[in-house]
Specification:
The chain is α+β, with helices and mostly antiparallel strands. The protein is built from eight helices and five strands, in the order ααααββαααβββα. α2 crosses α3 and α3 packs across α4.
Length: about 260
C-alpha cells in the first residue's frame, strides 16, 4: 500500500482535477430525476470544487456550466417552471463563483506573497548574521528601557560572546551592569541615560568583567535611536587591555630611569 499512497500523494492535484471534470460531465445524467433544489446543490458543489482547482476562472466556468444545465432542465421539463427560478439560479451561481473564486485568489496571492516575504527575510537574516559576526570588534544591539539607563542586550556577535565567555543566549539573560566593573557602573548608567534622552553617539572607555572574572579595559563607541516609541542602540566594543598595559609601561619608563 505504501507505493500506492506515494503515487496518490504525488499526483493528488491531477486526480482532483479528474474528479471535478468527471463530476461536471456526469451532472446532467445524475440529475435526470432531480428537481431544482437538488440541481442547485450539485451545481454549487461543482462551483466550489472548480474554484479550489482554478480559482476565479474555475468558479466562473463552473457557474456558467451550471446555469446552462439549469436552463436546459427548465426548457425540457414537462412541468411549467416559473422563469424566476432561472434568474435566481443565474444570480446565485454567478455570485457563488465570483465570491469564492475571488476569495481564494486573494488568499493564494497573499500566501504566495507571505512565502516570498519569509524567504526574503530569511536571506536578509543570513546576510545580517554573516556581517554581524564578521566584524573584527565586539558588537551588541541593546534597548534602553528607562531614563535611568537600564540596558537589555538584544543581540550580540560572536566576538562579544568570546570576550565575555558566555554563549549568546546565556549572555542575553545576564543583567547588563553585572558585566561592568563596579567602579564604572554609575558612570555607565549616566552615559546610557544621556543616550536615552537624546539620539547621538558617544565614545568612551570602560572596564567590563568576563564570566571568569577577568577584567577588560575597553573602548566603546555607542549610538542610540528611537523606533516605535522605544530607544535602541548599537555599541562597538574593542578590548584595549593590552594597549593600556603598554601605555602604562611607556609612561612608567618615561618618568623612571
Amino acid at each position: 500500500m505504501g507505493p500506492f499512497f506515494r503515487i496518490l500523494n504525488k499526483n493528488k492535484k491531477l486526480l482532483f482535477i479528474i474528479v471535478v471534470v468527471s463530476y461536471g460531465v456526469l451532472i446532467p445524467f445524475l440529475s435526470v430525476n432531480f428537481g431544482i433544489p437538488e440541481r442547485g446543490i450539485m451545481g454549487t458543489i461543482l462551483i466550489f470544487l472548480s474554484t479550489m482547482v482554478w480559482g476565479l476562472t474555475g468558479g466562473l466556468t463552473a457557474a456558467t456550466y451550471s446555469i446552462i444545465n439549469l436552463g436546459l432542465y427548465i426548457s425540457k421539463s414537462p412541468r411549467t417552471i416559473d422563469p424566476s427560478f432561472m434568474i435566481l439560479g443565474t444570480f446565485l451561481y454567478l455570485f457563488i463563483g465570483i465570491a469564492l473564486g475571488r476569495l481564494l485568489d486573494v488568499t493564494r496571492d497573499q500566501k504566495a506573497h507571505l512565502v516570498k516575504l519569509l524567504e526574503s527575510l530569511e536571506q536578509k537574516e543570513i546576510k545580517y548574521r554573516y556581517l554581524f559576526d564578521s566584524i573584527v570588534d565586539g558588537l551588541f544591539v541593546f534597548e534602553i528601557s528607562d531614563v535611568y539607563g537600564e540596558i537589555k542586550i538584544l543581540s550580540a556577535n560572536s566576538i562579544v560572546c568570546d570576550m565575555f565567555g558566555y554563549e549568546r543566549e546565556e549572555l542575553f539573560k545576564v543583567p547588563f551592569y553585572e558585566l561592568i566593573d563596579k567602579n564604572y557602573q554609575e558612570r555607565m548608567k549616566y552615559i546610557f541615560s544621556k543616550l536615552y534622552h537624546a539620539e547621538g553617539e558617544l565614545l568612551f572607555e570602560t572596564t567590563f568583567v568576563a564570566k571568569n572574572g577577568h577584567k577588560m579595559v575597553t573602548e566603546c563607541h555607542c549610538n542610540s535611536y528611537r523606533k516605535n516609541g522605544k530607544v535602541y542602540g548599537n555599541c562597538v566594543v574593542r578590548d584595549i587591555t593590552e594597549r593600556k598595559k603598554v601605555e602604562e609601561k611607556i609612561k612608567y619608563l618615561t618618568f623612571h630611569d
